[in-house]
């Protein structure tokens, strides 16, 4: 089968299909290109992002506004955003906010934090007056005349004109109208695609090929084939059969064809709800509720109703509610037609044979509901995530009573398929709808729904809690409905319970961004300090920005697929490549003999370690051959996976580190209280949008090679490739145009992969391309270090902290990588914003049998800082003081020294704290939250404010050196290059701003081509937020050198222009090329003495976040965040605010969402976006405000700026502590005064478990003394 698989620039498609007709006429659909088989596109018009608009033709308003609103950073996800917005606008030229957020629910971005993308979206929306007034009021009262809240000017935007859009191609229109429908058959290399046009023909095909799957949207079969190695020699595509696309409104319900998309089903149900009486549409409303969050629109546009049902997936959102609603299936075969209840297909688990192999699902009948029916779900992320548990429930009472006549309860996610609590439902018939029934029902359901202990997600207890919690919510809903029917007889539920009946909804976020205006005296041509659009922003939005896999194929190019270890610790007995070499298209297999030290030879030390790599003429052939490599292992002991395992086996990387200040032991003797505890912090996947990618092209002579690679450190790649090939570094030319996200993950591992690809290229004398799949990338590369912090804190009654003794253990994985350095940084930054007079802290990097963990944004501080804020919060709880009082009391106040004796001035720390307090209206909102919590039992709000001190520096001078090269051509144009890498942080944009100021010429005169080892040798890595600081100094130095040469010419002709001066300089033989250099920042740290000056300066910030939790499910909503950051004088406020927001949202992921799950054998389960959830549009705060601290100076960096890319991530923990605040309120209200521990990420599972009630007690076997006293 041939798939449309364009990786990124064609990530989403717009499809307009005349054969798919609705009453409103022809529609446009966005879809995931990686799921759509090309055979399914027959008769459709396909538009990719390049077709929407380009710099060569015209830029579409969507592309323009995304770029000018700064909605693009690394740019890799931008084409997908464009296609989602463009599709919506084709269908709804003036969409509502709700339609816009729904359109983006299926898109992910790792860089921006989504706010600027949504700002661009808002410019197209039909705004309600109330929303407009709210935004205007927020802006008017939030900043002074010296500050600005405008990062872009809407006046510059071209208008959206629907009449200028593409029409449906007349050729396709004529084909659809005039050509008779005929069966389509496509033959691939290994399989055949058959698309019949009649039901009879389909029945014949199924009789002849009963094992052949039916494919409509490919959302089930596609992933199975792509990720699980399932192969189907014949695929039948029934989407063109009219019988399977029927929509009929019957007297007793709706009949919907099995091939109808979920988007069509959603529209049909919405229209039915508007047109039919409410009592008939309860089930429609329940199904619609599930559809709103099922996948994204790109998935719903192609996924079919029939496929969802027939797959019988445990994680179906729809099957439980459809089964509970007594839906019927219309089946057809050569033997005739029959109707069966949908619930029958789940009767005996996944092996159920209610549907025969030769039968076809034609349609589904959804009957009108009778009174009480509801659907429920809880997922790792509110939208576009498979449910942990889903449920459908229906009850029918005897006429005029609350006596149960019929009851249906179905659950998804609890077993291998949808399950029914059949016995419980039968037992409860005849019971009255009251507390006694609730008690009995909960026990019966838990006894009947047996969850397998082998569940890979490990959420067994949570699932059980959700099972009874959902029934309780249904119980409350029905009680409330009974009250509506007869208020005198049925009192309903207490007012404080009502809010739990409302699910959290995604709203269009409102936001303010405040920054300091440039001085009025600054030249209009000088771009420094202005919100300049990312220089590649337009190219990102048009798909013209080139990433590694966009580079055109080289003649004879080969593709590489890696073979990885399936064991965590084992001896390799043999590697059999004979079968792989027989596969078509295979050229060679790269083994340890070819790449010593890069590929394991005799022993593997983690799952995911590269054993060999297959080079073939296509990616498909390489992958197929790689699957045929057979590796025989011999198990070795011990297998160390966790920090606890490492401690038990004394398995550590050396050296261990320690810092000490004051007399800790003596201080503990004098304090009023001592608390001890520990916190576990999970790892985090980088999840850069562009996976690890490299293209190696041998140049044909002198062993030269061009290496095009997605990396943060081309000089290191050059060094590793040269060493692997045994050639001097001057033969290896590394090129980096841009990187589609990195966050620290494209340093050492990129070197390993580039070396393997280079050896393959050298061996075969052909160009070799290696692009890791998302699953392989996550399996191989490692991420942020899991962390355990154990602490002992001594403090006084008034909250003053006098002594701290803390130990940090980090899971380094199987090789050292950067782990010891991460441990060191976690110690140096652990104090955060607090003066601790007596402190002892230790850090150990654990050696385990996991892929080696590596650098990640924040580099140890997000973990050690969270440990510090945890014991600060616990001190507040012990003393009865508020957390903000304890934080403020212990904060650095005056000129101080850190625990390693480096001086700091905390003035801006205090300013950030006070401004955030004021801008967030902290105390008034805290009072409002307390009132809300008194009036709501099952929903609670929480608020937290957290300060931050973030030291900047790379520890050694040589790590922060930088160079630049600037050429001026005789036409006056300038070519600029430097050693920094564009990762999405806008470094090239800022460097052009620097050059523009220094040379006093417009930015349009200056071009940046690429970062290359051929132009800037020995460049340091783009890490630690230092790129702009150090490269900016180098660029400034080069420009000043050029200007110094030009100055005599300028003095001779002061009224001339730039072009005149350059022409004259050339004629006078003045060199128009200059290098610039920056030696780096002084830095030192003596670990023996425990003192030094490892950092250059400090950034400061404060974040205040408010959340709301659902105590029944553990779900939460981020309501508002206010951030105040001291970043010196911003070179580009739009870029810098975007970096703060993006880092903050990544921090939300770290602290509340992103979970890495491993099997007991060390196999990573969470590989890819299906299992691993990063924040989406639904997760950012509904109100998201960022202010840059005004009048802040920094004498150490270019133009008084500060390197800020990493700092904002830690502020995401303000959400963690707001959640803790809400949980504390729950526990206090329920009399649970005992100290409790919360680990990171603080997921819905943890929140629900911490909100202890009789349901949680029931699941863990401790029965409450007064069970179900909630009504």
From TrEMBL:
The keyword Iron applies. One of its GO terms (molecular function) is 2 iron, 2 sulfur cluster binding. Substrate binds at residue 859. GO terms for cellular component: cytoplasm. Mo-molybdopterin binds at residues 712, 743, 857, 1024. Its cofactor is [2Fe-2S] cluster; FAD; Mo-molybdopterin. Belongs to the xanthine dehydrogenase family. PANTHER family: XANTHINE DEHYDROGENASE (PTHR45444). Homodimer. This is Aldehyde oxidase 1. It comes from Chrysolophus pictus (Golden pheasant).
